[in-house]
Amino acid sequence: MYRVLIILSTVVPAVFGGDSTAAEGYTPAERRHWAFQPRGTPAVPSMAGVTNPIDAFLLVRLQKEGLRFAAAANRETMIRRVYFDLAGIPPSPAQIDAFINDKSPKAWENLIDRLLASPHYGERWAQHWLDVVRFAESDGFEYDTHRPDAWRYRDYVIRSIQQDKPFDRFLLEQLAGDEVEPDDSEARIASGLQRLGPLRKNAGNQEVASSRNEVLTEMTNVVGSALLGVTLGCARCHDHKFDPIRQKDYYRMQAYFAAVHEKDIPIASAEEQARWKTQKEAIEKEIAELKKQMRGLRGEDRQRMAQKLKDAEEKAPEPLPAIFSISNDTAKATPVHMLSRGDYRNKGDRVGPRPLGVLLADGAPELPPEAPNARTQLAQWAGSPENPLTARVFVNRVWHYRFGRGIVATPNDFGRMGARPSHPELLDWLANEFVKNGWRVKPLHKMILMSRAYQQSSQSPLEKTARDKDPDNVLLWRFPVRRLDAEQIRDAMLSVAGRLNTRTGGPSIIVPVDQELVNLLYKPSQWAVTKDVSEHDRRSIYLLHKRNLRLPVMEVFDAPDMQISCARRESSTHAPQALELLNGAFPNDMAKSLAARLDKAAPDASRQIDL
Prior knowledge:
Helix content is 44%, strand content 3%. It is mainly alpha-helical. It is globular, with a radius of gyration of 27 Å. The N and C termini lie far apart (57 Å).
């Protein structure tokens, strides 16, 4: 039996301070929802011959329905499955043969360890996190201006995952890296999380009230969806219609970000900065003169002058290298008020920072609006072992990417309108183990991969009975069949064609696309193709993520546009996928390279077919 959750200020003392506010009066029924309860401490079911706790929890449910796991998959299936899962690319024929012929009883475990240590692991699993935090390298909306240094955040995520950085530290750096380690470039890059959302430009002025409100909304909403797994944004205009999240909760969470402003921290030397400033001022002077000359012009004269103006704008020097980050500018902090219907013009009471009230004692105090290091305290609360949401939400994401469906099938919504957990005891046990192991992710991966549930075949002898009882395979009576996602498809084509460039990190790559797509951009010059053609064969995670232009081979296979947090990718099947694979420039280029590779590897036709 779960206990009603009351996290008192004594649990995480640094989080709380300031004067008490009036009690919101959360009812026992509101606090009773499973996700807001403390995690249980379920015992692992005792089952003869079952050594993996995950299998024990799953088999209890299966046996109640008269079902069981499918037989183990064959070794060729297993190595391909785990390569695509952990590395995102297929194994080579030699790697497949080596695993099939490995007689060691630890062959599978050793393969898992090698893949978790591979740099490809960080590249593959970073993409999942980038989906959740809606990482992109352009602003979106009509201008879709590029963010030339945002790639540093992508590389930070890859490094952190590769190093198995504890997840609570990973959160702390992203929510408050600039506060906890202001002189550390890694921490400053991490805090760029708060600038990842779409940004509407209003004649370049981001401090007008409406734009500032949108910026704060983006910062707040992603904390709810990505970190806490609740639809926090639904309380922006009124109390949440389904979950016990008051409108005041929403603005208290927003108040943590009141002093956050974008900041690009220059990396260039003083001499480089001075030279760049001189070039920029010269172009600005030329542009101002052309605008002056345009006044009063009509017809063709104006068109010619407009083209000159456009050419001058294109000559503007590229921004100098910088860290895409934020600053905590208390002098420019935005007073956060309750807003009637979310309208920045209809202000109500001012509020200070405070976590979600349903997870606190009634009357828990707010921080003062000007409290120092407020986001550090938010991160400490979010990453506290006593927080019932954070660990559950993250282990559920790992399960989702592993089996194609989370224990909670709605990874961004653990609220009342979200799905109920299919195996609540397993979810809590996994979350507890995750916290107990220091919030490290690699042991969580290994535990799941070592289970019979993961190693089973996708075909079951009980298919007819199982489909009648559990048509969606929620109980995992067989391994789910899944289509590869867009990055896996593109990277696999590069890999088997012998073209994959495995260089890691660095500025994002722009590859050629149809000119018709480029012409749809506000400024076609934004799509400046990377000159080094070998860079075009880098892994998909290193391609430029532009909100208003996705590569056709990525878009047709459901790559998200990153306008909002992507909790789970769709897996559609439609004619344009076949047409792209048959007619697209990239698939045909890869096909030619594969043919050449086969011709070189084996002159015998039958051997080429085997390869």
